[in-house]
Amino acid sequence: MRHIILLFLCCSALVFANPHTLRFAPLPMLKSEIVLQQYVGIFSFLSQKLGVTFEIVYFTDYEKILEALAQNRVDIAHLGPLPYARLLHNAIPVQPLVQFLNEDGKSTYTCSLITAHHARNLPLKQHTIALTQPLSTCGFLSMSHLLKREGIALEEQPYFYADTHTNVILKLLLGEAHSGGVKSSVFSDYKHLGLIERSRSTALPGFLWVGSAKLPSALAKEIQEALFSLEPTGKDTDLMHSWADAFKHGAIAPNLGEYEEVLNLYLNTVFP
């Protein structure tokens, strides 16, 4: 699997005080050329605060990220709830670090089954479905349960993986699929293009950073404390204003019970 390694160095004067270079696996939903743009704000903050550097190791799918975590080839990974549930299921020793909040200050999000305007009158059983990735929470997992509400088995429908949430949107707009699954926030960004939301999942726990078993526990704690100390609507408003939306709303300790619920959902899903 192709991967791209980008080295992000910040505050080199501090590197000598703390020699840690952290190998970081970002979300595979992002295009490699915009990874640094998404993570530069939070990396810069942690670099200045802790004197660490970040080496971005980019993988194009979650399976490779989980494999790298299990083999300690990355120190920290940015994961959705389903990939983390897979780690729990496989008993991979990792350290959940922080769970990020959304723009409403909530620790959860939802997935939406959406339909293109050109397919609005076509019976759902005749739809080709565009999904993100096999291990994307808003992919086969959530869409199979949303379709089941309408008496449709996703595994019996024509479907394909479009890789990213924005690619799902594109496939619908180009007429290459009739319906698809994306984060509800992504649907909101593009609904003005004539997209229709058919149904929405229950609340799912938010995205999180997970440390490998080899990440020093003292450093893991420092990262947690640094991110927990941020006040996005208080003293750190100006600092976090330009950060990517995934991080600019703050972080909390992961609610591990919520991820156990995702694991149960995963275990009760019939994957092809």
Give the SSE layout.
Elements: E1 3-8, H1 12-15, E2 21-25, H2 35-50, E3 53-59, H3 62-70, E4 76-79, H4 81-89, E5 94-100, E6 108-109, E7 111-115, E8 129-131, H5 137-148, E9 159-161, H6 165-173, E10 179-183, H7 184-190, E11 196-200, E12 204-205, E13 208-212, H8 217-228, H9 237-240, E14 251-252, H10 256-267
Parallel strand pairs: 2-3, 2-4, 8-9, 8-10
Antiparallel strand pairs: 1-3, 4-13, 5-13, 5-14, 6-12, 7-10, 7-11
Helix pairs in contact: 4-10
Task: Provide an overview of this structure.
By secondary structure, the protein is an alpha/beta fold. It folds into two domains: 166 residues, Periplasmic binding protein-like II (D-Maltodextrin-Binding Protein, domain 2, 3-Layer(aba) Sandwich); 91 residues, D-Maltodextrin-Binding Protein, domain 2, CATH 3.40.190.10. Helices cover 35% and strands 22% of the residues. It is built from ten helices and 14 strands. The strands form three sheets. A seven-stranded mixed sheet has the order 1-3-2-4-13-5-14, sandwiched between helices. A five-stranded mixed sheet has the order 9-8-10-7-11, with helices on both faces. It has a two-stranded antiparallel sheet with strand order 6-12. Helix 4 packs across helix 10. The protein is globular. The two termini are 22 Å apart.
The number of strands is 14
From the alpha carbons, calculate the radius of gyration and give it in angstroms.
19 Å
Element-by-element helix/strand order = EHEHEHEHEEEEHEHEHEEEHHEH
The general outline is globular
CATH level-3 fold name of the largest domain: D-Maltodextrin-Binding Protein, domain 2
Mean pLDDT: 90
Biggest sheet strand line-up: 1-3-2-4-13-5-14
Biggest sheet: strands, sense, closure? 7 strands, mixed
Compute the separation of the termini in Å.
22 Å
